[in-house]
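Ticket 4471: requesting a sanity check on a complex prediction with pyridoxal-5'-phosphate. Repro inputs:
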Amino acid sequence: MIRTPKLLMIPGPTPVVRSIQDQMGRETVAFGDAGFIADFKGLVADLKAMWRCDGEAFVVAGTGTMAMEMAVANVTRRGENILICSHGFFGDRFIDICTRKGLSADVLKAPWGTIYTPEQVDAELSRKKYAAVTVTHVDTATGVLAPLEAIGDMLKKKHPEVLLIVDSVAGAGGAEAWMDWGIDVLFTCSQKAFGVAPGLAMLWASGRAVGKRRAMETIPESYFDFERWIPVMNDPSKYWGTPAVNMIWALKEGVRLIKEEGLEERYARHVRQAALFVSSMEALGFRTAAAKESRAPTLSIFFYPEGSGLDDAAFRAKLAEEGVQSAGCLAEFAGKGFRLGHMGNIDKHVLVGTIASVERACIKCGYRVEPGRGLAVLQAGLAKE
Ligand SMILES: Cc1ncc(COP(=O)(O)O)c(C=O)c1O
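Returned structure tokens:
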């Protein structure tokens, strides 16, 4: 039987291209190796410059959840107030992290599929003195994009003392965010829009965030402490925790590809690809959980068409047989639709292959879509690229 790799279209990990895989397969060297030290230093410098960071950038072994905890740990003190702005499962994850740390957390929630406005955030922040606010750039459970730049502007004008922590795990490298939008801690991880395998967290801290950490003298967390990592990030010949040598090379190659494409063009490509991808799915009768104005360019939740008779588990199993790995929806959306990523190092072939597989899976599951209906929309758009 001929077996081609299945397209990895879940919202992370995303497809890992050959040149990145090659870096993971290299012979591992000592972390004191001069060539590795130079590679690591260059990677951190690139991340800092590319995201317009006036403070420090960090590359640390761990997942996105670790980065969430690391962000909170370094800029808040036990007992301080924090506002958590949540529009989904991952926004809510901050509640546990913050309350375990002994912060007093208030939550501004947007119903799933919708987003809060900067005015609502402003109103919440005006009620009491907050040390920080968290925003989830793209919630992976809803496919909704937060109005990050507008929130940053509002904070600069109205609440300049409040630190802005941004979870851009499903955004950075695919959905626009820059530190000079007024962000104090931004973080993501390797397996999403950077197109690298899971294993690394990347964080950017503004000069002000680094200053707050310094002003606290010590924090209870050790592995996460910015002060432990800053000397290593500035001079990777120093040691704090063993760097993930091959993953750092893989990320360096991922960043080289981003630089080659251009970060601004990469963001524009994601917007174009997402619009086409969603239109193709809409032509097949699917609709997104997010309204058009707040759709993420990196991933979408597609609700099953009414009357299609599609059963979630059966449909996704068939889709996998047809060559595409997808993810189920979470919590209140579970069973109503499925999730597809459209971020990172994906090209026209991947998009065409995915829509073609969705069409076959629909037909094989008894939902009679006209073969080629979604593809026609996609191809017409891609031909103009
Ligand atoms: C927005 C967001 N934040 C945090 C996380 C947690 O990341 P990880 O699973 O790598 O711990 C995820 C995971 O998908 C995510 O999408």
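Notes from triage: The CA atoms of residues 8 and 15 lie 6 Å apart. Leaving this open until the requester confirms.
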